[in-house]
Amino acid sequence: MGTVIDVHTHMLNDKWLQTILDHGGRYSLKELGGQRVIHYDGAPFMTLMDGMFDYQNRIEAMDKAGVDIAVVSLTCPSVYWGGEEVSTATAQMMNDDMANQQSNYPDRIRWFATLPWQYSEKAVQELERASRMGALGVFVSASISGASLTDPSFAAVWNAIDRLEMPVLVHPGAPPGVAEMDMERFNLVFSVGFMFDTTLAIARMIFDGFFDRYENIKIIACHAGGALPYLVGRFDTAFEKMPPCREIISERPSSYYNRLYFDSISYTQEALELCLNVAGSEKLLYGSDYPHNVGDMEGCLSRVEALPSNVQNAVKGGNAIKLFGL
C-alpha cells in the first residue's frame, strides 16, 4: 500500500496561544457556537480544536485514518504579529517543541520550521538553527503583514532557503481587505479569502521571476493550490496578450508549474482530479488540514484512493518521500 504522509497538518501549543493573545494586537479570542475561535479584526479566523494541542490525540487519529507520518507546521497567523523579540522567541519555542515531538514520536512526526519572516536577519538565523534540528522544510503565509512574498525585504530569507534547498509550504491567511470587502460576513475569509491569498501570492511569484532567481526552491501550494489549477490557461493568455506580464519572465507562466507541488485538500473529487491533470502525478501530495474543524484525514485520503491506481501510492507518500528526502 505504501507509506501515507500528510504534508498539510498543523499543531499549536498553549504557550503560542497565550503569546498571541498577549501580543497579537488585532487577534482576539471569542466564543462562537460553543467553541473558542480566534478572531482577526473582529472576523472569525480559526476555531481552536483539542487536537491542535495534543500529540497523543494526533497519533491516535492518524492510526484510525491510516496515516503513517505527519509533517506538522504551525498555522497562520504564525508569528507575524509581534515585535522582533516576541516573534523570534515564539518561533524558537515552536521549533523546539516540534523537534521535541519528533523525538517523542520518531517514526510518526516530522516538521516545517516557523520563522519570524518580518525580521529577516533573525529569520535566517532561526532557519539555520531549525535546519540543524531536523526541520524538513519551511512554513510561510501567503502574505506577511500585508507584504507579498516577493517583497525585497524577504530576499535574504529566500536566499538562505534556496541555499539549503528546503521545500516551502505556502499557506493562506486572512488577506488584506477583510473589512473593506465585508469578508467577516458568512466567514468568507475561509471559503474565498484564503484561496485568493494563495493564488495571488504564487501568481505574483511566477510573474515576478521568483523561480528564476531561486532555482532550488520548491513550493507546496496549500488547498490544492487555491485557484491556480483553474487559472493556468488565463495566466498564459495574459502573458501572450498583455506586455506587462512579460516584463520580467520570458517563459509562459504554465512552465513554472513544474516548480510547484499541490496538496490534495480539494473538498471534491472533481477538483482533485483537475489538480492532478494540471500538476501531474509527481507533484500532488496527500494533505488533510487536520486538526482544523474542516480537516479530514480520512476523507482526504479516500479521495486520493479514488484516483487512478497507478498514481495513488505516489500521491499518498511516494512524492513526499522524494521531495523531503525521507
Describe the overall structure.
By secondary structure, the chain is α/β, with parallel strands linked by helices. The chain has one domain: Metal-dependent hydrolases (TIM Barrel, Alpha-Beta Barrel), CATH 3.20.20.140. It is 44% helix and 17% strand. It has helices at 14-23, 55-65, 84-104, 120-133, 155-164, 188-207, 210-213, 222-225, 228-241, 269-279, 297-305, 309-324, and strands at residues 5-10, 27-32, 35-40, 43-47, 69-73, 109-113, 137-141, 143-144, 147-148, 168-171, 219-221, 260-263, 284-285. Strands 1-5-6-7-10-11-12-13 form an eight-stranded parallel β-sheet, with helices on both faces. α4 (120-133) packs parallel to α5 (155-164). The chain starts with a strand and ends with a helix. The mean pLDDT is 95.
Write a concise synopsis of the structure shown:
The protein has 326 residues and is an alpha/beta fold.
Lay out the secondary structure.
Layout (H helix, E strand, L loop, with lengths): L4 E6 L3 H10 L3 E6 L2 E6 L2 E5 L7 H11 L3 E5 L10 H21 L4 E5 L6 H14 L3 E5 L1 E2 L2 E2 L6 H10 L3 E4 L16 H20 L2 H4 L5 E3 H4 L2 H14 L18 E4 L5 H11 L4 E2 L11 H9 L3 H16 L2
Parallel strand pairs: 1-5, 5-6, 6-7, 7-10, 10-11, 11-12, 12-13
Antiparallel strand pairs: 2-3, 3-4, 8-9
Helix pairs in contact: 1-3, 3-4, 4-5
